[in-house]
Design brief:
The complex is a heterodimer.
Chain A: H1 16-29, H2 35-40, E1 47-53, E2 77-79, E3 86-88, H3 92-95, E4 101-107, H4 114-123, H5 133-141, E5 151-155, E6 174-177, H6 193-211, H7 216-234, H8 237-240, H9 245-251, H10 255-268, E7 273-278, H11 287-311, E8 318-323, E9 327-328, E10 340-341, E11 345-351, E12 359-360, E13 362-363, E14 370-372, H12 377-387, E15 395-398, E16 401-404
Parallel strand pairs in A: 1-7, 1-8, 4-12, 5-6, 5-7
Antiparallel strand pairs in A: 2-3, 4-11, 8-11, 9-10, 13-14, 15-16
Helix pairs in contact in A: 1-7, 4-12, 9-10, 10-11
Chain B: E1 30-36, E2 41-46, E3 52-57, E4 62-66, E5 72-75, E6 82-87, E7 93-98, E8 102-107, E9 115-120, E10 126-131, E11 137-142, E12 147-151, E13 157-161, E14 168-173, E15 179-184, E16 189-193, E17 198-203, E18 209-212, E19 217-220, E20 224-227, E21 233-244, E22 249-258, E23 264-268, E24 276-283, E25 289-295, E26 300-305, E27 314-318, E28 322-327, E29 333-338, E30 342-347
Antiparallel strand pairs in B: 1-30, 2-3, 3-4, 4-5, 6-7, 7-8, 8-9, 10-11, 11-12, 12-13, 14-15, 15-16, 16-17, 18-19, 20-21, 21-22, 22-23, 24-25, 25-26, 26-27, 28-29, 29-30
The chains are: A alpha/beta, B mainly beta.
Chain lengths: ~425, ~350
């Protein structure tokens, strides 16, 4: 078998063709969604917290440990707050929160490619221009009067994705570089509020002239950018306020700790989907030392965040996803590394609409294949949306054209839904 | 021509050079035996009496091979991979440290040794174990960022040293018996005074770490640590020039430091084409230094350096990655733990020709 030994450089950059295709879709199909779908979830502001472990976290060092087996690695399994459920000893804080979370251990994506895996996990489809989970959340869950953009991604580096497809630019991912406020958030020096308002008015006049004879969606995309900027300008205190030292102590003073504190603040202020990327899991060499470092950073921070959401009554309305683009090979290579592995791996879910404390599916004794309840990202996609109260079997209504929200050939993991 | 034969009509015969097969000739180092386990090995150690070699592997057991009889024993008891060993001076006690944080003591005079003592030494991995020169104490380090010193007889904790801010990769006693040296992920070397219980000084070895910008993580630390026999020099094996450690793209390095001044004496590196990790370093009693490492593609190398020189003078290619290195007490052999599951014994002399069999 040929394993993927490295990462495609291009995968770490915006795919121009994809971007153009997405933009064209947005322009051509308009921005309207299905009134039926929107009506069903009206009045319930449900949220999504995505923790994306970029590069592919090892399932054997996290959610599906196999200590003492041929490919088990050096780490042991520890009990969790759920009787009978064990996870890796690298996650001692998370282990205490597992009664709030569940594990899916039987994912087979049938791809070992970073980009293919990532897009499948986000879109629920292997191919095609479809919106990410975050963009769908923005479309169907964000209140009309939301003071924040619907889909915010906090990441210190890495990927720039076109996420909204035909849903329109206002549902696209807005990326923050860590806790730094986006550039040019403040009104330029020397421009008072009156002058700024006149500037906006002038732009709208130009837009009206520009709209004549052009598709509505084209100007809506431009407008969306300004609207998102305006929303952020109105809430810039979220970035300016220094974190509480006690919170920093609990979450950690590293980037991931600070990013998760910002995520908590955004969710508390009615953000709809907040994604935080934690980098550094593509461990083709020194897998065990790197997972010690990376999960050591992830574990306490994530556990504190889940606990805070729970204590503050937000967890019931917030779907929590901890995921990657794939897992890592059971076989340990000569560099003490594990390579890409989409064949039998795990994620963790919790919060809104998810049955807590469950383990879905199993892998075989050596972790080399799914043994029971095989699922892929299509099934997971339906599960996320149905947990959020969105009927994933329904259609997007895009300017009179119906597009299935979830892959019609896949189904939700019903036993995972509460 | 042989001048003594110039005046004769006898056939000229080249005089065979006299080869001392006991004389060390590093450039003629060659493999003499192999001991195979079914899992890749992670570490090895030769006992001071020259009877055994022990190895840890990517399983929970310790393999013990008798160098004379080639018989094998398996020591069971650890609950995670064993990454470090030391022996008592007489070879009767084996001390082993595992990723699970435990130190185990084994009586090697037993036919089938079982742990005679287990010390739950660290929260998180116990990365290293060494016995003191007076044979009374054990030093360990672990992922709880601590250095600990234990009474070797009863396993009682004697001292704890705090100060490292990142995972501690190795620890050793200075031959004077009063100081400990430890090195962490960030390359920081700390020297601890066992009399005061405090850090005495530090050595900058930050060249032995790197931040991988692409993957946003640190990589570094000592993969082996040893003092020269007279204690005047410290050698540390590891990595430098981190480019993409997640794919193994960095250079191996062995750094030498003057013990008194703490100043760097040498940065020893293999050829630039060999990217990977230096996993082992040993001082030979004759003064030369031996290093071993593994590259990205799973090949290994042995490196030899003469005293005082700034570069290795000889490199020996190995077919599989070298993950651990030790010297046998005879000073003629070295052992390497390989990634293909074999401990191989290499002899640092010319190869003795075996008598050829003649047909009758």
């Amino acid at each position: 078998m040929r394993r993927n030994q490295g990462c495609n450089h291009l995968d770490h950059h915006l795919a121009r063709r994809q971007f153009l295709a997405g933009a064209a879709g947005a322009m051509g199909l308009g921005l309207l969604g299905s009134p039926a779908t929107a009506e069903k979830i009206k009045g319930q502001h449900k949220r999504v917290l995505q923790i994306y472990l970029q590069g592919g976290v090892s399932q054997l060092e996290s959610w599906d440990p196999k200590p003492g087996t041929e490919h088990g690695g050096p780490f042991r399994a520890i009990p969790t707050s759920v009787p009978g459920m064990h996870i890796s000893e690298l996650l001692p804080y998370t282990a205490k929160q597992m009664h709030l979370l569940s594990i899916v251990r039987s994912i087979n994506l049938k791809t070992n490619d970073h980009r293919q895996g990532r897009l499948f996990m986000e879109k629920g489809r292997r191919a095609g221009e479809y919106p990410y989970v975050g963009s769908i959340a923005s479309k169907y869950l964000a209140p009309a009067n939301s003071e924040l953009p619907g889909y915010i991604h906090i990441s210190t580096r890495g990927l720039t994705d076109s996420t909204s497809a035909f849903l329109g630019a206002q549902h696209g991912q807005l990326k923050f570089e860590g806790v730094k406020p986006p550039k040019n958030l403040a009104v330029p020096k020397g421009l008072d509020e009156t002058a700024d308002a006149r500037r906006v008015q002038l732009r709208e006049q130009f837009n009206q002239q520009f709209r004549v004879g052009r598709p509505k969606s084209l100007t809506e995309s431009f407008d969306a950018s300004f609207q998102q900027a305006a929303k952020l300008m109105g809430r810039k205190e979220l970035f300016e306020k220094a974190p509480d030292p006690k919170d920093l102590e609990r979450y950690g003073k590293h980037d991931f700790g600070r990013n998760c504190l910002l995520a908590r603040a955004l969710l508390e202020n009615n953000a709809t989907c907040v994604k935080v990327t934690h980098h550094g899991y593509d461990s083709h060499a020194e897998n065990f030392n790197f997972h010690l470092e990376q999960l050591g950073e992830f574990d306490k921070t994530f556990a504190m965040l889940v606990d805070d959401l729970h204590q503050r009554g937000l967890l019931e309305s917030t779907l929590v996803m901890v995921y990657s683009e794939f897992g890592r090979t059971p076989k340990i290579n000569v560099r003490y590394g594990r390579d890409h592995w989409g064949t039998a791996w795990s994620i963790a879910l919790g919060g809104c609409g998810i049955q807590p404390g469950a383990i879905i599916g199993t892998t075989n004794e050596k972790g080399t294949a799914v043994a029971d309840r095989e699922v892929d990202a299509g099934h997971l996609f339906h599960t996320y949306l149905q947990a959020l109260g969105i009927d994933s079997t329904n259609d997007h209504d895009i300017a009179g054209r119906s597009i299935p929200i979830g892959d019609p050939t896949a189904q939700p993991i019903k036993e995972l839904l509460s | 021509m042989n001048v003594n034969q110039s005046d004769t009509s006898d056939a000229l015969v080249a005089k065979k050079p006299v080869v001392d097969y006991e004389a060390i000739d590093l450039e003629k180092t060659h493999q003499v035996s192999e001991f195979k386990h079914k899992f890749p090995l992670t570490s090895c150690r030769a006992d001071p009496t020259g009877k055994y070699v022990v190895a840890g592997a990517q399983d929970l057991d310790i393999q013990v091979w008798d160098l004379q009889t080639k018989s094998n024993r398996t020591l069971k008891g650890h609950t995670s991979w064993v990454r470090s060993f030391d022996f008592s001076k007489d070879g009767s006690r084996l001390y082993s440290a595992c990723w699970g944080g435990d130190i185990k003591v084994w009586n090697m005079t037993d036919t089938q040794p079982k742990p005679i003592m287990t010390i739950q030494a660290h929260t998180g991995s116990a990365r290293w174990v060494r016995i003191s020169p007076d044979q009374k104490k054990l030093a360990t380090c672990g992922n709880d960022l601590l250095i600990k010193v234990w009474n070797v007889e009863d396993g009682k904790l004697l001292q704890t040293f705090k100060g490292h801010e990142r995972h501690v990769y190795a620890v050793d006693f200075h031959p004077d018996g009063h100081h400990l040296v430890s090195q962490d992920l960030m390359g920081f070397i700390k020297i601890w005074d066992m009399k005061t219980g405090k850090q005495a000084r530090s050595i900058d070895a930050s060249v032995m770490t790197g931040y991988d910008n692409k993957f946003a993580a640190d990589m570094g630390g000592a993969r082996d640590l040893q003092f020269s026999p007279d204690g005047s020099e410290l050698a540390s094996a590891g990595i430098t020039k981190v480019v993409n450690s997640f794919a193994g793209v960095q250079d191996p390095i062995i750094m030498l430091f003057d013990w008194k001044t703490g100043k760097e004496k040498a940065q020893l590196k293999p050829e630039k084409t060999f990217q990977g990790i230096a996993w082992g370093v040993r001082y030979h009693p004759d003064g030369f230094l031996i290093g071993a490492g593994a590259n990205r593609s799973g090949k290994g190398e042995l490196w030899f350096r003469k005293p005082g020189e700034k570069e290795f003078f000889h490199t020996m290619k190995l077919s599989t990655a070298a993950r651990g290195l030790d010297l046998l007490s005879d000073g003629r052999h070295l052992v390497i733990a390989h990634s293909d599951g074999a401990v191989r014994v290499y002899r640092m002399t010319a190869e003795a020709k075996r008598p050829t069999k003649t047909k009758t």
